[in-house]
Amino acid sequence: MDKLLLSKGLFWTSLVLLLIGGGLLLWDGSSEPMTNTSKQSTARASAGPIPAKADVPSPEHIKPIPQTLESKTVLLQNGDSLSRTLNRLGVSNRQIAQLLQVDESSVLSNLQPGQKLTTDILVPSNDLKNLTLSVSRERAHVFKQVDSGYRYKEQLTPIETVLAYKEVTIQNSLFVDGATAGISDKLLLKITGIFRWDIDFALDIRQGDRFALLYEERFIDGEKIGTGHIIAAQFINNGRVFEALRYQLEQQTDYFTRDGLSLRKAFIRSPVDFTRVSSQFNPHRLHPIFKTSRPHQGVDYAAATGTPVQSSGDGSVAFVGEMKGYGNTVIIDHGAGYTTLYAHLNGFADHVIAGRQVAQGETIAYVGQTGWATGPHLHYEFRINGTHQNPETVDIPYDSPMSKSELMAFLPYAQTLMERLKRSRSQDMAKYLVRLSRKN
């Protein structure tokens, strides 16, 4: 019995000591249960000391995220729009709207394939600082960020212009031999435009014809970017010598002979560009359909259906419509007794109606095969006071001449240009002889 009591006492004593030593007491000696506050206090105490306030960085000591200015250039393609292109580069719609608020933003509304769009953007904030639209090698539109949005500036790259000389003898054609000499099609077209009043380039060009020209070559940073104006030119066609000197009058810039006569005349020789003559002016021609001798009172220019037909001079439309064997026809009254007729047309330009004024070189109709025509061509007649004239040989009146004061200023300039052209020819010939001697 005593042993049993002793064993029970030891059991209870050991249990109490175990609970105290293990920290499993469920109360802290007070009669109140633990609240949430006391639990939080206990948790803070067990978490260790709280750092002092001075250890937390203040806003002014927080380092900003570094920004990098990145430039990107996009070559615009068909269908590209400003907003889609800029969105693709990371520019926000908000900044695009700011760009479009600039008065000159209309220059961004007509993007063309081949133009370049360059952006300077801060990364990673995607803040657009500069936008440049390069429309050509020498011209760009620049939008620079300012406090109030963006500011516009047109940027022009300095261009160096030098005079160059070329001389060509035609053995094949104007364009083939010109290209062989290193002359661009653009420059060759300018030559035909300058001499179009005196030379019919569809009919008159002969093997052995020659032309020489002084023209502008344009450079940016030493790289050739193209050609400019033809300053002086000479064309020898079938023994006839034609000269053209570029000169600026008070109201316009044009080409003149060394004597001050304008190359621009009241009529151009050919109303269709670069075709062949299929039938010339002939008072006794055998008609291809009726097989009888009938006068052919004009010139026929063979050309593809739809080729533009130009008015050979300023005037008003006297007739437009269908005319018996002529088919679709336009007649232009140029005043002072001059009229021209254009026949066998496929159709008329929309603005060509009776009484309407037209300008020299303006498209009035299109080549066709209407009326009595065996193939697509333009039939062209030239009349003075109702009498038919040969369009290829008729004397064409000059356009308005220079005034006396303008002529006095022009003549010394013309002499200088002609001397320069002659000197360039001599230098070119000397270079040719040097090359020839080296080959031999």
Strand content: 25-35%
Shape: elongated
- Largest pleated sheet: 10 strands, antiparallel
Number of strands: 20
Structural class: alpha+beta
Second-tier CATH architecture of the domain at 276-389? Distorted Sandwich
CATH topology of the domain at 276-389: Glucose Permease (Domain IIA)
The CATH class assignment of the domain at 276-389 is Mainly Beta
CATH superfamily heading of the domain at 276-389: Glucose Permease (Domain IIA)
Distance between the termini: 147 Å
Point out poorly predicted stretches.
1-7, 15-33, 36-47, 432-438
Alpha plus pi helix count = 7
Helix/strand order: HHEHHEEEEEHHEEEEEEEEEEEEEEH
Helix content: 10-25%
Mean pLDDT across all amino acids: 83
Radius of gyration (Å)? 44 Å
Explain how this protein is built.
Keywords: Hydrolase, Metal-binding, Metalloprotease, Protease, Zinc. Its main location: other. The chain is an alpha+beta fold and 440 residues long. The protein has 7 helices and 20 strands. Strands 11, 12, 13, 14, 15, 16, 17, 18, 19 and 20 form a 10-stranded antiparallel β-sheet that branches. A 5-stranded antiparallel β-sheet has the order 1-2-3-4-5, with helices on one face. The longest helix has 36 residues, at 404-439.
